Amino acid sequence: MKMGNRISDQSSIFSNLPFWKSLHITILGLDSAGKTTVLYRLQFNEFVNTVPTKGFNAEKVKVALGRSGTVTFHFWDVGGQEKLRPLWKSYTRCTDGVVFVVDSVDAERMDEARTELHKLAHSMESQGVPMLIIANKQDLRNSMTLAEIEKMLALSELGASTPWHLQPSCAIIGDGLLEGLERLYDMILKQRKKLKQQKKK
Length: 201
Ligand code: G3D
Ligand code: MG
Description:
- This protein is an alpha/beta fold and 201 residues long.
- The protein has a single domain, classed as Rossmann fold.
- It contains five helices and seven strands; from the N terminus they run E-E-H-E-E-H-E-H-E-H-E-H.
- It has a seven-stranded mixed β-sheet, with helices on both faces.
- Helix 4 links the parallel strand 6 and strand 7 (164-168).
- The site of magnesium ion (MG) has 6 residues, from helix 1.
- Guanosine-3'-monophosphate-5'-diphosphate binds at residues 29, 31-37, 50, 52-53, 80, 101, 136-137, 139-140, 170-172.
- GO terms for molecular function: GTP binding; GTPase activity; metal ion binding.
- It comes from Pangasianodon hypophthalmus (Striped catfish).
- One of its GO terms (cellular component) is plasma membrane.
- Keywords: Cell membrane, Cytoplasm, GTP-binding, Lipoprotein, Magnesium, Membrane, Metal-binding, Myristate, Nucleotide-binding, Nucleus.
């Protein structure tokens, strides 16, 4: 997949757009899964050397999605180290969507990732926040397959109120990221429509 120059820097004109053109997304996952790489790959369209995130990174990125036109994403990349995870809740309280990044090679910590993912989904259940789960590092030879990851993360056990999509990716190159974002965007719009209809009843 080519990312080309479909992604460009933020522009202040876009800060007053209606919600469907301007979304808040929280990027979560265990430390070293590739969260910051995902964020900066989208932001700069180039590989940057990352350092473990101490506080958080926040970036506004304008992305041209195929069918949906240009959407401004406000990304919050919260650190994944254990001591930072209690902070996740405060970021997901008013997020439009979550990107949960998983290291496809790290079989040892897949259980831990599953636990955190389900905890997170549970805490957001009432809001029905859609989740894009990124199976990252698919470029590595010993990466687990999508089917294996889906099973290890017990995605089928996620409640009906949490729409999700599992997306393979290689964040250092950018493979899969736009496709994933597009799916997340679709899920967010669908969820909004559903909530609106429920309110009418
Ligand atoms: P985090 O923000 O989730 O903690 P980082 O993770 O983005 O800091 O990435 C952790 C390490 O994984 C980095 O390597 C980064 O280059 C690497 N990485 C991220 N995405 C990919 C990928 O798709 N493929 C491969 N092979 N590596 C990836 P270092 O060596 O700096 O720790
Ligand atoms: Mg980081």
